[in-house]
Design a protein that fits this description.
The chain is α/β, with parallel strands linked by helices and about 475 residues long. It is built from 19 helices and 9 strands. The strands form 2 sheets. The protein has a 7-stranded mixed sheet with strand order 3-2-1-4-5-6-7, sandwiched between helices. It has a two-stranded antiparallel sheet with strand order 8-9.
């Protein structure tokens, strides 16, 4: 006889995994699991949402539900595997607290939301003390990815991951050279890598937006003309999901007005915080990520819509216009976008390298690049070269030093500088393009201006300094002049 579990259910009647939180991402993950042959129990605090989901999908056979948390837990095979798809923050802790009285030792909780990695580290420790295993898993790909194959970035208890590995690998995106799912590392490593993914996503989106903006503002291209450029670029080195959707966005027409819909969208961007977390953590670790940070600031600046409208009538703009070939500038924008993209990814991977050292994670950067090849928002052809770079040299200190990327930056440098310079000359803001070029120029300089900074710090605060001609730490009375 099979073992009898709570509620009188036999083990054969129990469900392989449970999922809490039936917003669209949660619903689609359930359908993905069900499609791959797994039996899934679901629970949502609002019972009507659960019933609506089951009624609309008509798939009660492999999907069960419960009216209470206690009943939900009793539907699951042991050790129980429960995935939380609830809002990050306090809601996760509240849901864990609600579940704990009904769990048994060695049960597994999986947080699939966009949780802050330090919260995940804390939860791993707190639950381990109660012999409950915890996985913090980054999930990327949006609604379509959740349904058809997301990129999954699990971290936390390794023994727990081994028990859910089959489910994760079945539902994850597949690419020609692997599965977009792999164990990242201990405690908060999975959510950290997802955070950096989102930071890079911020950078990618801002860079693409700036490419669109300079072609619109300098050349006066209409959306259909820009669609042709983005479509061509997406067939080459810039092939990516974000380029695909940009290409398609440019063709969308508003049915009511007949105008390109993009031109009717208010230039005031929102954000959910993961890009900000990336920039904040980079400051904590002392790692420069200027492209990502400027992408966050660009969204912040966009929110000043009323002030910008007023300033546009008051503050002076430079006079002038572009006198060159339109085709040449479009080609140059392509190069500026590609070169800036290299810098943005270089910053993200450098940040993960610093985090690995700071938090004790043994991260495998080639594997991380593979995770992002499919399913996720930043999936791109480009990532294959990043994987190759780290496979060739696992200790590569910066992606810009890899021969492939080094050559690309050298080849595109002239056009890149021309685009950024043109933006400055004509007063076209290109914060992410500019920050990327400054990052490149700063990294390649043997000597920077920081000697003056150190002298200033020592002058006003006796912070001391080092010298290039002899060892030691020095302090000088800078204001005494002989």
């Amino acid at each position: 006889m099979p073992e009898n579990y709570g509620g009188g259910k036999q083990m054969d009647d129990l469900y392989d995994i449970g999922l809490i939180g039936l917003a669209v991402m949660g619903q689609n993950l359930v359908l993905n699991m069900q499609r791959h042959g797994f039996r899934v129990a679901v629970y949502n605090r609002t019972a009507s949402k659960t019933q609506k989901f089951l009624a609309e999908k008509g798939i009660r056979g492999n999907i069960g539900s419960a009216a209470t948390v206690a009943q939900f837990v009793q539907l699951l095979k042991r050790p129980r595997k429960i995935m939380l798809m609830v809002k990050a923050g306090d809601a996760v802790d509240m849901m864990i607290a609600e579940l704990l009285p009904y769990l048994s030792e060695q049960d597994i909780l999986i947080d699939g939301g966009n949780s802050f990695f330090l919260d995940t580290r804390r939860r791993c420790g707190e639950l381990a003390a109660k012999n409950i295993r915890f996985i913090g898993m980054g999930v990327s790909g949006g609604e379509a990815g959740a349904l058809y194959g997301p990129s999954l970035m699990p971290g936390g208890d390794l023994s727990a991951y081994k028990e859910v590995k089959t489910i994760c690998e079945c539902i994850a995106a597949k690419v020609e050279d692997g599965i977009c799912c792999n164990y990242i590392g201990e405690d908060g490593a999975g959510h950290y890598v997802k955070m950096v993914h989102n930071g890079i996503e911020y950078g990618d989106m801002q860079l693409i937006s700036e490419a669109y903006y300079i072609m619109k503002m300098v050349l006066g291209l209409n959306p259909a003309e820009m669609h042709a450029a983005f479509a061509e670029w997406n067939n080459g080195d810039l092939d990516s999901y974000l380029m695909e959707i940009t290409r398609d966005i440019l063709l969308k027409v508003d049915e009511a007005t007949g105008q390109p819909l993009l031109e009717l969208v208010l230039d005031k961007a929102g954000q959910k915080g993961t890009g900000k977390w990336t920039a904040q953590n980079a400051l904590d670790l002392g790692v420069p990520v200027p492209t990502i940070t400027e992408a966050v600031f660009a969204r912040c600046m966009s929110a000043y819509k009323e002030q910008r409208l007023a300033a546009s009538t008051i503050l002076a703009a430079p006079q002038g216009f572009y006198e060159g070939s339109a085709a040449a500038l479009v080609s140059a924008v392509h190069d500026a976008l590609y070169a800036s993209k290299i810098c943005s990814y270089a910053q993200g991977f450098a940040l993960m390298q610093a985090a690995g050292a700071a938090y004790g994670w043994n991260l495998h950067y080639g594997d991380i690049a593979l995770l992002w090849r499919g399913g996720c928002i930043i999936r791109a052809k480009f990532l294959g070269q990043i994987k190759a770079a780290f496979l060739a040299r696992p200790d590569l200190p910066n992606l810009m030093l890899d021969p492939f990327f080094r050559e690309a930056l050298a080849r595109m440098q002239e056009n890149w500088r021309m685009v950024v310079g043109l933006g400055k000359k004509l007063g076209i803001p290109l914060p992410a393009f500019s920050a990327s070029l400054d990052y490149y120029d700063s990294y390649r300089q043997a000597i920077l201006s920081a000697n003056m900074l150190q002298a200033q710090r020592d002058c006003f605060g006796a912070h001391t300094y080092e010298r290039i001609d002899k060892p030691g730490v020095f302090h000088t009375d800078w204001l005494t002049v002989k």
